[in-house]
């Protein structure tokens, strides 16, 4: 419907209008203009929202604008309000309400009372329900736009007196919130995220606040201005705050001083604390419990722009005790994932770069949000040394280290720690994280000066070769990570770590052995991770078997992540019901293994160079069942990541029909493989394929150097979650399992392979070829397949 202009006072009953009867006009102006500076970088977003407001055909009744604090949501809403005044669309009124916290029905009703000029006799001494009835009676015949700013929780519009959003298409609502979850709870027809500005627009906004006169006052200032603006990472509120602070600064030395302040003490930068951090901190204050707040602050321990492994982060939270209310690690991990979701919905945590080829998820924190979190962790800057985080500092002065006596948390990244050679006593320090490139050893005294240490993460200290025996003094330690170090021996004093719950020893290629009875002495151990260590170190099959036997003795062990290389150690694992229940991540490297039995509990399976492997079976508790005969109601529900590499006798992977949760599948250098799924070998496929959901969650499929591979699946599948396909050196693969009935996944992003392979594919339906061709990207070598 074409929207027509209306008089500001009288609503005309025109042809084409939706109204045959119009109630008394509003005495006050239909739209009240709101103050608004010139906007930068919101044109596309504004255009999309404006189209939704105009287009009745899409039946868009409510629009949710969500995003982190200071990103420009209120600015966008103000622009919508003022544009409604300019265009005079056929709305009887535009009503603006700043809701804030808590979502108070009475407050919203009062705004409507003032706008609608309801008689006092119908308002004073009336109940909330009676006032709602009066508001409803006035609004039910009107066509209006409701603009709600700063919603933090669901607002019950019916209690206010707002007619239903679908009430004869008379109401349009646009609201802003920092939480995507609020959009869901408000049942918005459309939700759109307001993001930070790209660099060009961010710098343009910054320059407008600094002023052209200042920018052009010295030839060095434009470059210095770029350096300041980049510290804001595209966040409009930060750009405005810092830009205003630099207005009139015409000496390069002043800019250089402020840049140093932004890098080292951003809270001291003019306006940052009051105008920026306190505004952003409202999101933190709105988190529902202390556990979520602690988890959020913890993310600031990592360097700027650092991508945090979700699994590692949750393991650290478990070590810190943030998730202690749960009885086992699986429940704690699940809750950790829920915490991450809630932080993301609150726009306090972001997804890291997508890695289609790995199950591992990565997270990151916006630079300004991170600085705000550090400010909060340091008690609004009043206890600077409570939370010490250093990144890329060439040297730390002895005087500064001396101030760390009262610190609870130290996080050092790429920082020279020479001054820790004579460390002070840390009576209350609970967390010590360090990742420094050139550390070869730590001073003995360091580990005697931490009487209450709970979390010690020394991972990625690539030159670290020696661990002092004094580590055995850390009797309060609950989390220890030594991954990606050059440590050769673990001291026998490890036995003293009776409270240790998480021990992570991944990628320790120089580790010679584990002293006997060390692992079995860790009586509180719940998580043990040691993958990619055994295969490259000097561990023997006997060492592996002994390690597994010690793990089996542990009463509380819940999660095992391990890499095995010998048939005897694999058999030890398969013979133990307890070990099978606990193994979440299994990497196999064995040239002699010819049969593999899978546990129902396995989540990640990597098989490398098992050249004799011919068959796979599934172990249901104590009963081993060949996959082609396994019960229909049972399957590998937990398995989501499978990598097969160099298994020359493996003919197919038909057992994958038992893995409905599979997300990542990579098969390489399996020279005998002819089919991924073989219908002829599966007795359940024809009946149960829809029930089992073959490949229904698969997001990434990689097939490399499979010379005999003829088929992925003989029937077409829907692949509803598939995002990435990579095929290289599979000359016999002439068909892909798509047809016109199954269609193409809406999530598909890339298909990579050699051009001649793509050109030689056979298609039963040319429509599918045309639909898939836009996603194809030719490559000449497997290394070109980086995602």
UniProtKB/TrEMBL annotation:
**Domain Disease resistance protein winged helix: where?**
301-373
Ranges for domain Disease resistance R13L4/SHOC-2-like LRR = 436-751
Which residues belong to any copy of the NB-ARC domain?
46-213
Any GO MF annotation of the entry: ADP binding
Q: Name one GO biological process term.
A: defense response
A Pfam family recorded for this sequence = NB-ARC
Keyword annotations from UniProtKB, A to Z: ATP-binding, Leucine-rich repeat, Nucleotide-binding, Plant defense, Repeat
- Family label: Belongs to the disease resistance NB-LRR family.
Q: Which PANTHER family match?
A: NB-ARC DOMAIN-CONTAINING PROTEIN, NB-ARC DOMAIN-CONTAINING PROTEIN-RELATED
What is the protein named?
Disease resistance protein RPS5
Q: Which organism is it from?
A: Vitis vinifera
């Amino acid at each position: 419907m074409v929207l027509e202009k209306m008089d500001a006072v009288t609503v005309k009953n025109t042809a084409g209008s939706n109204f045959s009867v119009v109630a008394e006009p509003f005495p006050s102006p239909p739209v009240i203009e709101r103050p608004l500076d010139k906007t930068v970088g919101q044109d596309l977003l504004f255009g999309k929202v404006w189209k939704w407001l105009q287009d009745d055909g899409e039946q868009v009744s409510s629009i949710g604008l969500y995003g982190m604090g200071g990103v420009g949501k209120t600015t966008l809403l103000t622009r919508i309000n003022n544009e409604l005044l300019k265009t005079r669309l056929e709305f009887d009124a535009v009503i603006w309400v700043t809701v804030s916290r808590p979502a108070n029905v009475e407050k919203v009703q009062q705004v409507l009372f003032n706008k609608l000029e309801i008689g006092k006799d119908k308002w004073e001494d009336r109940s909330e329900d009676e006032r709602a009835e009066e508001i409803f009676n006035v609004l039910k015949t009107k066509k209006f736009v409701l603009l709600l700013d700063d919603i933090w929780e669901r607002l019950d519009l019916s209690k206010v007196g707002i007619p239903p959003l679908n009430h004869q298409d008379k109401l349009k609502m646009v609201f802003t919130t920092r939480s995507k979850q609020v959009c869901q709870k408000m049942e918005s027809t459309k939700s759109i995220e307001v993001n930070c500005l790209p660099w060009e627009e961010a710098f343009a906004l910054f320059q407008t606040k600094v002023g052209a006169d200042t920018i052009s006052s010295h030839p060095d200032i434009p470059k210095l201005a770029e350096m300041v603006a980049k510290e804001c990472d595209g966040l409009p509120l930060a750009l405005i705050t810092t830009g205003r602070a630099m207005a009139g600064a015409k000496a390069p030395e002043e800019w250089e001083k402020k840049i140093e302040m932004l890098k080292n003490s951003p809270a001291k930068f003019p306006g940052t604390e009051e105008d920026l951090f306190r505004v952003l901190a409202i999101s933190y204050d709105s988190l529902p419990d202390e556990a979520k707040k602690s988890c959020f602050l913890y993310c600031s321990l990592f360097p700027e722009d650092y991508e945090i492994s979700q699994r590692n982060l949750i393991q650290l939270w478990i070590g810190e005790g943030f998730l202690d209310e749960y009885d086992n690690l699986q429940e704690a991990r699940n809750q950790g994932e829920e915490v991450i979701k809630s932080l993301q919905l609150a726009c306090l945590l972001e997804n890291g770069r997508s890695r289609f080829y790995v199950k591992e998820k990565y997270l990151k924190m916006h630079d300004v949000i991170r600085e705000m979190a550090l400010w909060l962790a340091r008690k609004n800057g009043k206890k600077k040394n409570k939370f010490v985080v250093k990144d890329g500092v060439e040297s730390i002065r002895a005087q500064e280290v001396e101030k760390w006596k009262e610190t609870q948390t130290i996080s050092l990244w790429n920082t020279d720690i020479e001054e820790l050679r004579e460390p002070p006593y840390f009576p209350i320090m609970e967390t010590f994280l360090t990742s420094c490139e050139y550390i070869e050893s730590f001073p003995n005294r360091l580990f005697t000066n931490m009487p209450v240490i709970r979390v010690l993460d020394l991972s990625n200290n690539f030159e670290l070769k020696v661990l002092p025996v004094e580590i055995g003094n850390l009797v309060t330690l609950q989390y220890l990570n030594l991954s990606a170090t050059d440590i050769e021996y673990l001291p026998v004093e490890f036995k003293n770590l009776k409270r240790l719950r998480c021990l992570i020893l991944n990628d320790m290629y120089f580790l010679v052995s584990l002293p006997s009875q060390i692992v079995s002495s860790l009586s509180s151990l719940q998580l043990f991770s040691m993958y990619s260590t055994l295969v490259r170190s000097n561990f023997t099959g006997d060492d592996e078997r002994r390690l597994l036997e010690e793990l089996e003795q542990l009463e509380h062990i819940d999660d095992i992540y391990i890499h095995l290389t010998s048939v005897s150690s694999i058999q030890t694992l398969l013979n133990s019901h307890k070990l099978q229940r606990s193994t979440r991540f299994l990497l196999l490297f064995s040239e002699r293994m010819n049969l593999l039995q899978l546990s129902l509990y396995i989540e990640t399976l990597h098989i490398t160079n098992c050249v004799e492997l011919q068959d796979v079976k599934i172990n249901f508790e104590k009963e081993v069942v060949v996959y082609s005969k396994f019960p229909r109601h049972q399957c590998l529900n937990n398995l989501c990541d499978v990598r097969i590499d160099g298994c020359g006798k493996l003919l197919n992977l038909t057992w994958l029909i038992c893995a409905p949760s599979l997300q990542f599948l990579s098969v390489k250098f399996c020279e005998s493989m002819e089919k991924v799924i073989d219908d002829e070998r599966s007795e359940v496929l024809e009946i149960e394929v829809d029930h089992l959901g073959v490949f229904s969650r698969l997001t990434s499929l990689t097939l490399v150097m499979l010379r005999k591979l003829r088929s992925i699946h003989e029937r077409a599948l829907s692949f509803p979650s598939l995002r990435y396909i990579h095929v290289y050196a599979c000359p016999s693969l002439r068909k892909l399992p798509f047809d016109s009935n199954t269609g193409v996944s809406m999530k598909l992003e890339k298909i990579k392979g050699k051009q001649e392979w793509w050109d030689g594919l056979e298609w039963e339906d040319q429509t599918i070829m045309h639909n898939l061709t836009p996603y194809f990207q030719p490559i000449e070598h497997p290394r070109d397949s980086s995602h």
